[in-house]
Amino acid sequence: MSTFFTLRRLGCAAGLLLGMTTAQAQAQAQAQDHASHHAPAAAVSSPAPAAAPDPALTEGVITRVDTRSGKLTIRHGAITHLDMPPMTMVFGLQDAQQAAQFKPGDPVRFRVEDQAGTLVITRIQPAS
Which domain holds residue 12? Predict the structure, then answer.
């Protein structure tokens, strides 16, 4: 019988926690909705800010160029869409001829995709 009471207590505790979590989420959503109604008038009528850098591009610095194989070694920041932390890696270029446009030390912004298990740069541009 003690197992029954233990399970019953656990069930009550779980229900209480679930109710608290739901209430907290609702309160947070209401606070955010309420805050959106009180935005300053200047913020609503102001022009859009300058375009932000494309979040699909990752910043990095080229450390080595291999024009013969069309590969770049890049010390890069986190590649969020691939869940990859910052590191230095060798990447192949989708267009191998692009390798000749870069040299070690060049800051770049690039897009890399996993193509059948190989990481390939599909877009690259000098960082400004």
Answer: 2-45
Specify the number of domains making up the chain: 2
Cα(78)–Cα(106) distance, integer angstroms:
18
Closest CA to 112 of 67, 65, 69, 56: 56
Residue 105 belongs to domain with CATH number: 2.40.50.320
Determine contact, residues 114/83, Cβ cutoff 8 Å: no
CB 74 within 8 A of CB 110: yes
Residues β-bridged to residue 54: none
* pLDDT tens-digit readout, 49-60: 555 556 689 999
**pTM of this prediction?**
0.58
